[in-house]
Amino acid sequence: MVRASSAGGVSTGTGTKVDVTLKLSQLQNLCKRDPKGYREDYDAQIRRLESECGILKLSPQTPSPRLIELIQFAAAVSSSSYKGAESDRIANMLIELLVGGTETKSEQDKANLFMTMPASALQLARDVRKSCVSALILMRNKGVIPPLKLLELFFRLMAVVPDKGLREQLYKHLVNDIRNINKKGKRDEKVNRAIQSFLHRVVSTHVGEKGQGDEAAATDVAAKKATDMVCELYRKNVWTDDRTVAILASAVESKIPNVMRRSMIFFLNIEERMAEDQKEKEDDEWDASQKVNMHLFSRKTKTRQRHVQRQLKNRTKEQKKREGDTDEWLDIRDDPGVEACRKLYPAIELLRDPQGLAESVFKRLKKPRSVNYRDKLLMMNFLTRLVGNHELILLSLYPFLQKYMSGTQRDVTAILAYTVQGCHENVPPEEIHGILKTIAHNFITERCSEEQMAVGINSVRAICARVPSVLSLEDNTDGGEVSAEFDVEAFARDIAAYSNHRDRSVGIAGKGFMNFIRETHPSLLQGKHRGLKGSALHKNKVKPMRYGEQKVSGGVEGADLLAEYESKKAAHKKNGGGDSDDENDSDDESEEGDWKEVTGDDEEEVAMKFDDDEAVSDDEEAPELIVHEKSDETADESVIDLANMTAEEREKLKQEVSSNRIFSTADFIKMRKLVEREKKLKSDPREAARRKRAVARGKDFEELSDDSSVDSDDDQVHIKGAVNPYEIMAEAKRKRQSKAEKLEKILAGRNTFETTERAGGSTNTEKARKKNFLMSKSSRGARSKGRGKGGLNIKRGNPTMKQQTGHEAKKRRRKL
Fold first, then answer.
1. What does the pLDDT average to over 462-477?
2. Distance between CA atoms of 701 and 440, rounded to whole angstroms?
3. Cβ distance 380 to 401 under 8 Å?
4. How many alpha carbons fall within 13 Å on the CB side of residue 170?
5. 340-349, 440-449, 560-569, 704-713: range with lowest mean pLDDT
6. How open is the CA angle 554-556-557, to the nearest 5 degrees?
7. Cβ distance 180 to 147 under 8 Å?
8. Spatial distance between the Cα atoms of 419 and 441, rounded to a whole number of angstroms
9. What is the per-residue pLDDT for 727?
């Protein structure tokens, strides 16, 4: 009910209309309810805001106390009730207040728009600047301001304004805004391309400049924030395309050390960090599913019962998923095969020009005093990973790495690991020979310590594993094989002799190298060092391929083995071999051959058909049945035996099977197992002898096992091409590190003990442990504590004597 007041104004429940319009919070509510009715009051407050902004330009450091409230009111009302021209006018007013006035610049200066800002904008009060930023963020969240316009403004503020809290606020908003733009079903590629091109311009404009690397400079701050933003968006699976990787590739070439360092660290360990985030997410989901609110102390309703059932169902589903059981609880999205297909390529694999980037980084690395030693190690790590993953040819890299291979070099184990990273099959053996000689002269000598010798032997083994053509011998004109400049046979035998070294770490490294040579090129070793498997491989003339030589396959590897396996399996079933598949087939046949009950008219139809069949068959004479026995030749026509085939016939069979058949996932798994079994037969004489005895007994067919050989208990993330210095470290040092890691786990387990995480007070066991001794020394538990191995033990000479415990021990012995 509205009544007139004594002052002549209209009275409401909270006061007169004049009083209400003067309270901005109430006017904001009224404008949302009736925008047209309160448009005049809104315009009056906006004119007041314009006058306050004009006064603020004259004295930026002394703002009006009601200016912040007017800014928040204008942003909230214009973005909800007066969208369009009015909201754009308010947004431009706030932007002008932040940047210190209107600026008109040419297209040439738009790239450097964030570089400078007037002095009046820098003298603006911190509270006013923060309120303007919050108002613009509010208008952006309501969709009034386009994202790119606000992105350019906020980057300019981050680059110029030295306010740490403001930078964090702007950075967090920009990341969340881009994540909201790329939500499922809302992805806008046009906006993404515009934002990515702007960020690329921010980073790449500093590549060619000769900056001093000052972290306080505006250009450095903008480039660092842009790099951090792109790295975080990639890590959160928002931007994972090649355009994002191109931005970070430009950051690698930046003259600003921090930008270069952050982009290289991104390429080296982004997959590991994403795997850690995924594991944390799964652990959080698991912990949340295990907490079930049973509503024990609340009112029992149907809604709460459904809530409890839903929680129990989710807990069971997570339990099945964690155990790896395929059940009706699991969705197709939880299939491990589907999840493996969704895995991203490593970011370093998406580079557009890896050769040009590698040459640019190496050119900077070779300059003396261009970067400090830590950055130089980081650049070596990135460069060798890039060369190893893309198999680039950068021949001047290997002589450069040899300069750092000395026993007194700092972080020499990491440098050796980076050298292993940069080796691949396409590197000429002549380049690797120099590295092997340097390692042998500086590490694998008696003047070095045992730890250095072990590291050197492990490095040589890892390099030879990546470049097997180093071990190959060049063909001589006389028919023999001899190396051109490097005596590979003498080198391999000298290092294999360290398998009998007195130090345990050196002996383990020497045995590892000898086992590697046995599997790769056993002819290099002496007969006594080849072993059982090495002798078998030597008999089969196993040796690595020479440089430039490739093994070209005419079909899918293992297709011929799969054809032989399936043909023998079919013959085994036909001959009455017991198999689970036969039982299933017999069940299907029994189901198909069951009698069906026929009633009514169906019986008459069946009888009529039966009579017709008899009438037709009466005129014909029944043929005599002759038992025909198949000969062994006709029975074995369909069975494929690769042992009786030549290499050309086997290759032809492989091509035929590969071209006429579409393989399933199960077929590829079978082929992988069959190839592994064939390699095992060639390398292990015992397995070959066992197989030969089975064939002699008539057991030609051998079923494949269902066990997967790829399962591993190792929870670490293995990145393609990465070599950890821990892998080539000496055994003694690895043990020390593992002992330290165990101690860390023990200390961490004490903090996360089950009693400390349990809700409620301490248990009775904890209370008894902390109880005063004088209060518990006469208790029954204390008196009977040491009576297990005390005075009344069974004597060794009298095993028939019964031990007396408890009440029996206190009784008096009766005299006989």
1. 79
2. 50
3. yes
4. 28
5. 704-713
6. 100
7. no
8. 16
9. 81
Q: What is the 3-state secondary structure (H, E, C) of 243-266?
A: HHHHHHHHHHCCCCHHHHHHHHHH
Nearest 5 degrees, angle CA 708-CA 709-CA 710?
A: 95
Cα separation of 396 and 347, whole Å? 25
**pLDDT per position as a tens digit, 362-373:** 999 998 887 889
**Residue from 246, 244, 189, 199 nearest 223 by CA:** 199
At which residue do the structure tokens 């440098």 appear? 415
Higher pLDDT, 473 or 569: 569
Q: What is the DSSP string of 536-578?
A: HHHHTT--PPPTT-----SS-TTHHHHHHHHHHHHHHHHTT--
- CA dist., res. 600 & res. 611, Å (int): 18
The whole-number average pLDDT for the span 350-378 is 90
Q: 610 or 399, which is more confident?
A: 399
Which tens digit of pLDDT belongs to each residue from 606-645?
Answer: 444 444 444 444 444 545 544 444 444 444 556 787 777 8
Q: Looking at 236-372, list the stretches that DSSP marks H as alpha helix, in order from N- to C-terminal side.
A: 242-252, 257-290, 302-323, 336-341, 354-366
DSSP H or E segment with residue 11: strand 10-12
Task: Give the DSSP H/E element, type plus range, for residue 16.
Answer: strand 15-16
Q: Are 27 and 45 in contact (CB under 8 A)?
A: yes
Residue 437: strand, helix, or coil: helix
| 3-class state of residue 634 by DSSP | helix
Nearest to 103 by CA among 88, 114, 89: 114
Cα(380)–Cα(148) distance, rounded to whole angstroms?
Answer: 37
pLDDT, mean of residues 455-483: 76
Residue 626: both structure tokens together: 């002759």
Tell me how many degrees the CA angle 231-233-237 measures, rounded to the nearest 5: 115
